Amino acid sequence: MMAYWLFKSEPDVFSFDDLISKGEKGEEWDGVRNYQARNNMRAMQIGERGFFYHSNIGKEVVGICEVVALAHPDSSTEDPRWECVDIKAVARVKSPVSLDDAKAEERLSKMVLVNNSRLSVQPVADDEWDVILQLAGGTEKL
User: Fold this and answer.
1) How many structural domains are present in the chain?
2) Distance (Å, whole) CA 55 – CA 72
3) Are 131 and 6 in contact (CB under 8 A)?
4) Which residues form the EVE domain (predicted)?
5) Cα separations (Å) of 34 from 83, 85, 137?
6) In terms of Cα–Cα distance, which of 136, 132, 129, 141 is closest to 49?
7) pTM for the full model?
8) Which terminal residue of the chain has fewer beta carbons within 10 Å of its beta carbon, N or C?
């Protein structure tokens, strides 16, 4: 069964446009140093989708990405504890969905983003995925 995810990145460090520029090969989602976030990446399957969320600046879901490589050693460290997946951009949301929008939506009250906004890679329930896409007004092809 396919799962959904949310990937958080500071847009001044690595933005959704940066991911788009990487094309079909995508980019390693490196630099994660949180065990829960790493374990989430270990659980991912190729083809699963995630929201791309701009943290700190904007605090909003801006796009959709797809897992293109299973968890593997993180090339940004020699420490064998850290692994990551590779993702590619697949679509932009028509209208970004802010953290405030998510918090104001009763149907998202149990969403990890709403309750643990610090976790950098987090699961998204099927119904939460649908609600965020509704709030965004759908997606636009890249």
Assistant:
1) 1
2) 24
3) no
4) 3-135
5) 10, 14, 32
6) 129
7) 0.96
8) N
CB of 16 within 8 A of CB of 63? yes
Distance CA 111, CA 85 (A): 22
Instruction: Name residue 50's beta-bridge partners.
Output: 5, 65
Q: Decide: 62 and 30 in contact? Cβ < 8 Å.
A: no
3-state secondary structure 81-135: CCEEEEEEEEEEEEEEEEHHHHHHCHHHCCCHHHHCCCCCEEEECHHHHHHHHHH
For 80-110, write each residue's pLDDT tens digit: 999 999 999 999 999 999 999 999 999 999 9
Residue environment code for 11-47, b if the CB has 16+ CB neighbours within 10 A, otherwise e = beebbbeebbeeeeebbbbbebeeeebbebbeebeee
DSSP 53: E
